[in-house]
Amino acid sequence: MKKILVLGAGMVSRPLVRYLLDQSDCQVTMASRTVQKAEECIEHHPSGIAQSLDCTNNTELEDLVTNADVVVSLLPYVYHVQVAKFCIKHSKHLVTTSYVSEDMRTLDKPAKKAGILLLNECGLDPGIDHMSAMRIIHDVSYKGGIIKSFRSTTGALPSHEANTNPFGYKFSWSPRGVLLASRNPAQWLQDGNIISIPGKKLFENYTLQDVPTVGTFENYPNRNSVPYKDIYGLKDAQTVYRGTFRMAGWCETMRYLTTLGWLQDTPLTNFNGITYADVTRFLIKAAQTDDLYQATATSLDLTPYATVMKRLQWLGLFSTTKKLPTGRNSPLDWLNVITLEKMALHKNERDMIVMHHEFIAEYPDKTDYITSTLVNYGIPNGDSAVARTVALPAAIAVKMIINGTITLTGVHIPVTPSIYTPILDELETMDIRFTEATTPLSFG
Description:
This protein is α/β, with parallel strands linked by helices. Helix content is 35%, strand content 24%. The protein has three domains: 2-119, NAD(P)-binding Rossmann-like Domain (Rossmann fold), CATH 3.40.50; 128-249 and 346-385 and 433-441, Dihydrodipicolinate Reductase, domain 2, CATH 3.30.360; 267-327, no CATH class. A hairpin with a 3-residue loop joins strand 10 and strand 11. The longest helix is centred in the last third of the chain and has 19 residues, at 385-403. The model has no long low-confidence stretch (mean pLDDT 95).
C-alpha cells in the first residue's frame, strides 16, 4: 500500500483527501496544525491518519516526509521549498497547487538526480488554466495553425443567487491572500507591446467582459503574463494576457481601499485607536470633530452618495462601535477579519468558478476565434467549487504518480499532454468540463 502525506488541512484539502482515500489503494496521512480539521476530512476512514504538525519544526516535517511515497503540500507557499528539499533528500515525489517560485526552480537538477517529480501549479489557477489552454494550443498546432492572441481569465465568485452583498464577493477561506493580491503589479503583452501596471494602479486598469450565458464581469490583469508566451510555446502570439474576474464594482472599491491605506500590512505608527472608525480617521488624518463619512468622501474626491462610499459604510469602516480584533496590528489584518465576518460564503450557498480562454488562431486558409469556458458551482452544504477545482487536479496527479502514469522527473507544471490529458478527461467525469466554440474571422 502506497503512503501519501498531505500537509495542511485548509479549505481546499477535503476533496483531495477524500478522492485519494476513496479512489486509490493507499494510506493517507493528513498533517495539520489543528488535528481536528484533519480528522473532519478523513471522517474515520480506515486508511486515513490524522496527525498534528508544526510546519516550522523541520525535524517533525522531515520525519513525516521520510515515511511517505508522495507528498502533497497544501501549506502556505513559503513552506514549499523546504518540503521539496526534504523530498529530494529522501527521494519522495511532491505535488503542490502553488506557483513555481525562483527558489523552487533551482531544485530542478537536484530533483532529477534524485529521480523524483516536483509537480507544481496543479490546482485551478494555476493548474486547470494551464491544462485547458495547452490542450487547445497543441490542437491548433497539430492542425497546422498558430496562435496570434491568447487571453485567459478566471474568477472565483459567489453564484448569482448567492451574490447578496454590495461587494459582489464572498470568501470561503481567509481573505488575506485575496487582499494581498490586490497590491500586485501586472504586466502583459498587447499587440506586440509589453504593458506594465504598478500595483497601486492595478484597479484603474480593468475592462468589462461578457461571458456568454454567464454574465458580465470586471476583468483586471493578473500578475505577470509575459512569461507565458514562452511557457505555453506561443512564439507567434502578439497578445498574451491573464486576468481575474470580479462582479461589477469590485475594482473601483478596491482602488479606493488601497488609496485609503487599508491594505497596509505593517503596523501603524503612533496609532492607539480601538474601533474601525478610529483606523479610517487616522488614515485620512481627519480631526476628531470632523464628520468621518464626509471627511472620507472629501479625501477620496467622491460625492457622499457614491456607491463606493456606501460599500465602505456597509463593511463597517466608519463604525464607532465595531472594535478592532485583538492579536492583530495592521490595517490589512483588521480588514481581513471584518471582510470575513461580513462577506463569508455560508455552507448552504454556492460559489462559482468562471474560467474563460480566448484564442485567435491563424491557419494557412482561415482565421478562427476560439473560446473555451468552464463554469462550475459548489455543492450547498458540501464542497465549494474552489475546493473541488483546486484539489481534484492535484489528487488525480498523485494517483497518476503512484500508478506510474507520470514518469517525469525534476520541476514541472502540467503543460504536457501526458499530464493534462488524463487529468482533464477525469475531471469531465466529475462535471468539471469546458464548453468550446469556434467562430471564423474575416478581415477586409
